[in-house]
Amino acid sequence: MSSRKPVCLEEMVWPEVESALENGTRTAIVAVGSIEQHGPHLPLNMDTLDGDELSRRIARELGDALAAPTIRPGCSGHHMEFPGTITLPPETLMDVIRSYCRSLDAHGFEYIVLVPTHGGNFGPVKTVAPDIARELESTVIALADLDEHMQLLNEGLSEAGIEYDQDVIHAGAAETAMVLAIDEGLVRVENIEPGPEGEISTARLLSEGFKSITENGVLGDPTRATSDAGNVIIQNVVETYVEHINTERDAV
Fold first, then answer.
1. What average pLDDT does the structure give for the chain?
2. Exposure letters 99-109 (e unless 16+ CB within 10 A, then b)
3. Whole-angstrom distance, CA of residue 103 vs CA of residue 135
4. pTM as predicted
5. SS3 state of residue 96
6. For residues 161 and 129, what is the distance between their CA atoms, to the nearest angstrom?
């Protein structure tokens, strides 16, 4: 039996949550993921797996935080040509985020950290966070800089010895590495195949859909991925986000 302090809210019983709050737990980490295609080799819940892992690791690093259940699905309309993708309108996602935060605020969390892990969710998170912050007693911290997020993934690859950089990351080397690190059994290695590389028009991806750019739903070369690189990438994001959170909490 493990004596490690639980950090996943959904796995706890309510008296444990009450006790945690009474004993100094003050922060809730809320990842905002998706259910959408990630090529023929990664599961539809890739962004949710990522969110689960990041929120758990961030909570443990902080030491006084709990990982709330990852919100899913997200805003994935540009993936709807691929079967299995489930999408929400931005306003619906923002309402869900608002309700999550209201619930956590009512229970006494002082800080609520929003961590989008799907590109289409960064805009809605950034839009709704200030409104929620004005409404609640909790301080809302939105880690919603998409450029920084993708830079951290590319930096993680480089730190792991894989010199491969993508401006638009989706189902390529970085995300495949992350799933290999989280649960390699979920990667259909026999189906791994590259997608378009080089400069990608994000405007076209969003307006015309992913299939206008990539037939298999992949951007870049997932064959470059390794589980070791995935762990480096995830830890790179965790360390940076923990630093951001502590800076915001110290400034309040």
1. 96
2. ebbeebbeeeb
3. 12
4. 0.95
5. helix
6. 36
